[in-house]
Records
---
Amino acid sequence: MSKKLFIPGPIDVSQDVLNCMATQVIGHRSEESSKLQEEISLKLQKVLYTKNTILLSTSSGTGLMEGSIRSCTSKRAAVFSCGSFGDRWYKIGVSNMVPVDLFKVELGQAISPEMVDKVLSTGKYDLITITHNETSTGIRNPIEAIGEVIKKYDDVIYCVDAVSSAGGMKIEVDKIGIDICITSVQKALGLPPGMAICTFSKKAVQRAKTVPYRGTYFDLLSIYKYIVDKNYQYPSTPSLSHMFALNFQLDQILKEGLDNRFLRHENMAKTVRNWAEDHFQIFTNKNYLSNTLTVIENTKKISISKLNEKLIDRGFEIANGYGELKEKTFRISHMGDYTVEDVVDLLNNINEILEL
Ligand code: PMP
């Protein structure tokens, strides 16, 4: 039986999008393929409010995280982490022999612009990473205020992991000054997993040119050059099926209207937050709440796995806490094409199961 997935990605994909995945394949060096990639790029530039080049990657988002820290760190990277996905950047840096330092805050708290300023003022770093929407804790980091700080440091590349927020929360890439903004398609964009996207600024291009060992598959400069020098091509064979589906889904997103889409996400978030306040407690610092997922403290000490088993019988699924927050918290996502009615339906089912 198919379920409604309220886990923070992947989420359900509309039948129309699934049908696009079944489009007959075209040659990846054809003009048709270039046109497809160009169309996708123009639409993504709208969704991400940027004029920067859009890079596609046939991988999940982690691939572009690896590509960005490896391709664009010349001196040393500063990773700011408020949870598991922030920590992932650090592990990626270390395993790629990128000089990197980790700066952490307590789980449930956000990275502050002051913290970033203090670290950058040492002059040791020329790339920083921030997780916009930390999927393990439900924090939305203040990427706009952090962007203001970074504007003081000309040589710093600003990388943002927007894997679980792009398409559901407004990210004005150019206004904020983000050099590399990464996302995956299986979350708020509402596609099956298997493709990742990032924006790539001129400054990032110049930096990558100075980095000698950028790897191969995730060498962002190579992906960029195929777009610029070869008219929207891709260095290897991309998932054309995803590209057909992404092109279609971006039309749907733009048809809905970006502001409407972001508001729908906000309204779904408010619905879940109100419910969480009534019956449990929100785990996350309330000044920095995500609009695509809510992390709830398990104040009633229920078995989250048992709740989920019962939900699955009813055709729904939510997510347990991530890593060390398992059973201590649970996560309800509200992203993609879901509506407030879908969320209310889920919450009513939880109420019935838990007799709330
Ligand atoms: N960053 C964040 C914030 C995420 O939520 C995830 C996936 N849960 C990732 C990175 C990794 O993305 P992917 O699974 O697409 O590689």
---
Amino acid sequence: MTEIETTNFIEQIVKEDLEEGKVGGVQTRFPPEPNGYLHIGHVKSMLVNFGTALKFGGKCNLFFDDTNPSKEKTEFVDAIRRDIEWVGYRWAKEVYASDFFDVIYDYAEKLIHMGKAFVCDLSAEEISASRGTLTEPGKESPYRNRTAEENLRLFREMKAGKYPDGSKCLRAKIDMASPNINLRDPVIYRILRATHHRTGDKWCIYPMYDYAHPICDYLQGVTHSLCTLEFEDHRPLYDWVGITLGFSPKPRQIEFARLNITNTVMSKRYLKKLVEQGLVHGWDDPRMPTIAGLRNRGIPPKALLSFCAAAGICKADSVCEQSYLEHFVRDELNASAERAMAVVHPLKMTIVNYEGEEETEFAVNPTLENSPVRKILFGKNLYIEEEDFSLAPPPKYNRLKEGGYVRLKGAYIVRCDEVVKDGEGNVVEVRCTYIPESRSNHDTSGLKVRGTIHWVNADRCVDAVVKNYECLLNDAAYDGQDFDERMNRESEKVIEGVKAEPYLAAAADGTPFQLLRTAYYKKCTEANGKLCLSFIVSMKDSYKKS
Ligand code: ATP
Ligand code: MG
């Protein structure tokens, strides 16, 4: 189980409820609707729900809110389970709203008996037209005063399949003049012939979320029902259901702000659109903010949790910079990822005075105390980055130039004696001499060299492809999220002809590396067996702590 240090207003409320004896223990639930894949916003919700329960020695259920059969699928249920486990949380019980369909139905009959619900024949459009506005009350339905007997008969007939979809509904009888529109006789059951992924065709009526959720919370013994701010206006209805049905103890709903991040799309609806329009390769595309995408990107779950905890749990809506998330990813990888070398745009380097091969030493992760070292074979034929050599170096250029010196990481200092050009004047090879006394950690050469560059052994290296990623959206703004025009159509760039250390090819797929002086990449294997290095995050921290 992942425990992350947090303190926030929700924990404060829970603590007070415990101290005042309002609750005996803490039970929460993480309530995804299985209509898509989880995204990073859900990590925040997990941190709140699982985190609060953990902190107070309570329990958190995984609650599938499956009251909307036309959009829900078992595929999504399985993906959600896998994603939560990967983030590092374990649920107490796995519960579905559909487990409670019978009880939820019985409670609706109870409301009818109490005169608190009625069958309404208005269409969805008519109901919405008669709901009123923020400044004007709504209009009562002409069916509002049906007797309990008539309502019960009609409701049972709805359940038995006597009426077409949408021709009737069950509404709570609350107050058409309430300043809160959610209390203006909300619909609590609708007729819908849709095969449910768990109950099949048993039901042709389904409860609405606002009505079913407080019941499901109560039946699970939820003490604190933690959800995002858009449900704040629904809390009076949540409470109305609990109070009217006599729930004791009644679960307490507390809302917190959603996590928003710049330069990306977050809502499931839009993520689905990206997948369906083929703008990404799938739900787990490394550019997606889905948990499957972040995992595939090579981001450690700990980085996601630390980021969400640092972004904070509060009541005020805000938008986090993409660079703030990257800051946590980099921190985590800097501490955990092994270092390796790959040359993305190779330039041939020949060490003219060197023959044979020898093992040089390379620190696996210099941030570790006593970092282990591994051996890298140095030889006569190498590759360096094109951009690490300059024919016309600007002032203070520390890398290689004609007649200049540079250190090859973990190996020797070399001097560039000769430059070979092709017919068009492009540099195709640099010919160097190495200084035998300059070997790293054994340097007696007395030479002071400012630049160190990475390299690979041309006789030992492996061909690779690099995949680089940028943000999905060009535009940072996080508004209504319509992304069509703001889409960065070049967010994926594939670079062929990369030369990598054989160590990278031998690593397990999924292993993250810091490619020296380049960025953090995840090792993968292409369908054709070729080594692929897939971008995780840059080396440079652009996040400014304010
Ligand atoms: P989406 O906006 O992706 O459609 P949703 O709210 O419909 O998300 P649910 O499956 O209903 O997704 O969400 C499960 C839980 O996660 C809910 O309690 C919801 O409030 C919470 N949640 C969803 N998105 C975020 C977010 N961006 N930040 C924090 N919590 C979120
Ligand atoms: Mg939702």
